[in-house]
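2024-03-11 09:14:02 INFO receiving multi-entity request
2024-03-11 09:14:02 INFO entity count = three
2024-03-11 09:14:03 INFO echoing inputs for audit
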Amino acid sequence: MSFRIDQLPKKKYVVPGNAACAGCGMMIGLKILGMALGEEAVLSIPASCAAVVQGLTPKSGVAMPILNVPFASAAAVATGIAEAYRMLGVKGHAVVWAGDGGTADIGFGTVSGAAERNSNIIYVMYDNEAYMNTGIQRSSSTPRAAWTTTTPTGKHERKKDVALLMATHGVPYIATASIAYPQDFYRKLKRASEIQGFKFIHLHAPCPPGWRYDPAKTVEIAKLAVETGAWILWEYDNGQLKLNPPSTVYVDRAKRKPLKEYLKLQGRFAHLTDNDVKMLEEEIEAKWQTVLALAKAFPQRL
Amino acid sequence: MKTLTVQKTALTGNYAVAYATKMAKPHVIAAYPITPQTSIVEKLAEFVEKGELNASFVNVESEFAAMSVVYGAAMAGARAFTATSSHGLLYMYEATWWTALSRAPVVMAVVTRTIGPPWNIHVEHNDILTLRDAGWIIAMAETVQETFDLTLQTFRIAESAALPTAVGVDGFVLSHSTEPVEMPPQEVVDKYLPPRRPDVPMLLRPGEPVTFGNLPSDNKIHARHKVAAVYEAQQEAKKVISQADEEYGRLTGRRYGGLVEWYRAGDAKHIVVCAGAWCSDAKHAVDSLRARGVPVGLMRIRFVRPFPREEVAKLDQYETAVVYDRDITPVGGILGLEVKAALSRARVVNIVAGIAGVDFDSRHFYETTQNAIDGGYRDLVFVV
Amino acid sequence: MLPLSRPAPASAGMTGTWRTYKPVVNLQKCIDCGLCWLYCPESVIDWEKGYKIQIDYTYCKGCGICADVCPVKAIDMTPEEGI
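2024-03-11 09:21:47 INFO inference complete, emitting structure
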């Protein structure tokens, strides 16, 4: 399996002229999904940006088979597709491509249910850290202090970590990923497709209108999230949890870029004071400690 | 010539659903327990675990997940079954509309149960009737034998009509009552049920990039789809249903009359209209009234959807239609409303009774039907 | 039976009209690395290793990611007429 850029498939799974915003981070992710699994996957897409970027019937802006489904149902619908394929002898992967809202909030019951049953699906939660499709309202995945229309002075609560929640469900494969590291995401999709059972990938996907930044900076911001330690690339596979490069470098907090470099590019954090930033850096360090502790603790018999 | 054995046994309504479903060989079953549906799903789990039924049995975490799983399975080309009641149906409600507008041929047993609060596990029809606007086909069984037969038929009806179909089995009254049931041989069922076509309602396969459900470029596309799926498909389903009934009658000897069943209506002047298990009680009352010379008959609505307009319109040939509703809405009874809308001459007396599981047997039918015929009632009556 | 959709360009119309800045490529500077192709969220950059890139301006939304990720700054976001 090669991840050299020039050997990745050239077929356009994201079709030009679709309804996504200019600079949409999620579309980069969808491209990679297509490259990795475009001919083998059937997507269940709940209400989300992903439902809208497909554009208008009779055209679709995404060149993969897609079933658009009710907001909270994607994990359950994908389970139904996977079981149907199993009984009918159809080869392929039932994949969910859902946002943070449809996964962490309204869809959490179906996600947890599919995880507990170890249903044979690949669940990708693309995380633009708010309900972006409906105009930037907060989700439980919105980071602390971020502005959204429903948290106008900044979110009071911390970010809910869905990938860690999946880890304690005991499913065979979980990974975090970022659209800034497409080859890492590609590898994780391929790895997930080799495993039977419930696979979960949490994909960080910056959003220009929602995070308030110049659309050209989508990849730069996603990279800074990793380089400041705010987003940790890790992977749980076959009972082992490990960090992925370049997050392996940022275990050492001295090597992390100052969080301010990540925050200052985004209008949603413009109101933060230096004290706020310090507090957030401490929170980030606490999250690192949790992930590292889990890395030591796995394999667990929960 | 091979001799095929008909098996005669005694089953509860719920087990009749389970055995019929087993014979229909669904690929995917997903359901969440709720009283009084539980024994359907427990029996099916047993069949699957014992290896008597080769199906994927998905233990879902909610009714919403149950409907979503069978929806996904049906869209992927599988034969799929679920069952629920009352609050469970309300919990999956969004998914039931999505399923109907997707024309996914899901089969669902609804063991009818009162909606609360307060909590109440006894029979009432409001739950299954909440599907009447969504575009589901809705059937109501009267006996355990019919429960078995209807369940088998709905797999064929749903797939031929490309509409999800619900079978109503009255809670406790039918679901937990044991009656004799004749089960046709598996070979007969296999002949009766056509193979599941994977392209109904669409072919969802890896490598075939087709999308369903994204925003319409012109809302007229959506509007036309709705007229076709919600109204026209129901009209087309009427033929599917009567053919299913006739063919079943040829193969088993049991024919029910299609969308409605007429009972002693030929020379009647007044007709009792009802749906569900209590129609047996109503028929007893009709017999008693007839014994006293009262010219009364009965029309049992087997299919609430598609609404049997043509049959209901025949009630205009009679003086009175006494419509019993085991449901309640702010505008009276649902069947009463719909029957009244289809008529212009007969007097319609709508009697809302037996809701919240209150007992309503043949004596009650006898008294209230007599009162209705005598003109002792206004147009809408609540009997509590 | 169902209103189905199939992949086609322009599912949201002529998205090239959205942009106010246009990515202009200096092919002399271009080192044929493919990063702009990889990161373009619209699939409007075509790349063949050895032949460098071409941008389809019919649908390019002018986000500027290509210019931002180019390691040698071979892409310039130039204003459209009237900006």
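2024-03-11 09:21:48 INFO post-check: The longest helix of chain C spans residues 35-39.
2024-03-11 09:21:48 INFO post-check: The beta strands of chain C are 4-7, 21-25, 45-48, 52-55, 75-79.
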